[in-house]
Amino acid sequence: MKIREIKEEEISSALGLVWKVFLKYEAPSYPNEGIEEFKSFLNSSEEISKLNIYACFKDEEIIGVIAIRESHISLFFVDDKYHRTGIGRKLFDYIRSIVSHDITVNSSPYAVEVYHKLGFTDTDKEQMSNGIIYTPMIYKGI
After folding, report:
1. Pick from 4, 37, 53, 85: CA 20 to 30 A from residue 63's CA?
2. Could you tell me which CDD domains the record lists for this protein (predicted)?
C-alpha cells in the first residue's frame, strides 16, 4: 500500500469512495439538508480545487482518502472493507508528516471516537450548520 497526492484523473474515484462511505456511515444520522449540503460540496469543483487530496492505494485501487485545506482536514474516509486495519492511521500520519502546526477538523458524529484515538481533543460541543452535524476538534501533537 502506498499513500500519495491524487492526480487530476483520480479525483472522481476518490470522491466516489467518499460518497459511498458517507452514505453508509454518516448519512443515516444526518437530516436531508445535511446530505444535500455534503453532496453539493463534493460536486463543487471550486471547493474541491481548494483541497490537497491524498489517497491510500492498494495496487491501483483507492481504499482511503484524506483531504486538507491548509491544516484543516476536510475529508477523511476509508473504504469500509478496510476499517480497523490501520489505513486511517497511516493516512493521518502522512498528513502529520507534511503539516507543521496544529491540525483541526470538524468531526462527524460517527468519527468522533476515531479522532479521539488519533489524539484530537474537542474544542467545542457538537454543532449543526446547514444540516451538517459536527464536533470541532484539534490535534496538538506536532
Report:
1. 37
2. NAT_SF
The Cα 107–Cα 116 span in angstroms is 10
Alpha-carbon 117 to chain mean position: 15
pLDDT digits (tens, 9 = 90+) for 32-85: 999 999 999 999 999 999 999 999 999 989 999 999 999 999 999 999 999 989
Q: How many CB atoms lie within 10 A of CB 77?
A: 25
Q: Give DSSP secondary structure letters for 3-42.
A: EEEPPGGGHHHHHHHHHHHIIIIIGGGS-HHHHHHHHHHH
Name the residue ranges covered by the structural domains of the chain. Answer: 2-100
State whether the Cα torsion 9-10-15-20 is positive or negative.
Answer: positive
The bridge status of strand 127-129 relative to strand 121-122 is unpaired
First to last CA, the chain: 25
pTM for the full predicted model: 0.94
